[in-house]
């Protein structure tokens, strides 16, 4: 690759995800300038070949595109306020997690300083962005994404969702809604196995096997949601009873059943709402139109 064709990018924020991004860029032959609030986190990246910026302003000035990997959007303001004079004509790709509305406000703030903006959300196996299942949502102006998609391609397969700055976070947070309870539920399941005197390694293949049915359930629930949601009174009663069995099994083994109690409460809310309405009122319906506080 000739010198004039070498791609370059700045990365601000060197937590586990930021460092993973720097490694991916460097592996693709991209020149990377890095900055982090704690300078020592840049040391390992510099050893790999990245350039260290002494200030945020220096990092932003170094390249047309700056990728942010921060805890939330509030950190973006803290960081970029140190470089507002350098933002004009630049592109900020914020791949940090936050709410859709915070992403929209962040995009408006960046543009108010003369820069372009893209929002992103990593769907990855932790900080393993090279995992085959990893991909990256983007949203923001199509022309900005198209102009820089090739530069950003080393990070993960790209899924451009639309011009709304908040859209990447809508999809990203929706998937995290599924993932967080799953993490907790799986820990509860493993605790039940272990506290019952059984072998977690023996249980694991059955857990993986059961997960193969999840795509079926997802498709069924998605189809039902478009018609108002899954279930009827008999189904809700069955799930209420099933939740109680899980609670009993957990308590017998000395395992915290809090998560299962929350699930049971939803089934009971569906039963009560259905009885009051004289028709099935699904949990999807309850969640999509929560009672005003």
Per DSSP, the total helix count is 12
- Tell me, rounded to a whole number, the average pLDDT: 95
Number of strand segments:
8
* Category from helices, strands and their pairing: alpha/beta
Radius of gyration: 23 Å
Largest sheet, in brief, is: 8 strands, mixed
Tell me the strand order in the biggest sheet: 3-2-1-4-5-6-7-8
Can you tell me the residue ranges where pLDDT is under 50 for at least 5 consecutive residues? none
Distance between the termini: 60 Å
- Percent of sequence in beta strands: 5-15%
Order of helices and strands: EHEHEHEHEHEEHEHHHHHH
Question: Which overall shape is indicated by the principal axes computed on the Cα atoms?
Answer: elongated
User: Helicity level, as a percent range?
Assistant: 40-55%
List the helices and strands and how they pair.
Elements: E1 8-12, H1 16-27, E2 31-35, H2 43-48, E3 51-52, H3 56-62, E4 65-68, H4 73-80, E5 91-94, H5 100-112, E6 116-123, E7 135-139, H6 142-152, E8 158-162, H7 167-195, H8 200-211, H9 214-225, H10 233-252, H11 258-277, H12 283-288
Parallel strand pairs: 1-2, 1-4, 2-3, 4-5, 5-6, 7-8
Antiparallel strand pairs: 6-7
Helix pairs in contact: 10-11
Care to describe what's here?
The chain is α/β, with parallel strands linked by helices. Helices cover 53% and strands 13% of the residues. The chain contains twelve helices and eight strands. It has helices spanning 16-27, 43-48, 56-62, 73-80, 100-112, 142-152, 167-195, 200-211, 214-225, 233-252, 258-277, 283-288; strands spanning 8-12, 31-35, 51-52, 65-68, 91-94, 116-123, 135-139, 158-162. The protein has an eight-stranded mixed sheet with strand order 3-2-1-4-5-6-7-8, sandwiched between helices. Helix 10 runs antiparallel to helix 11 (258-277).
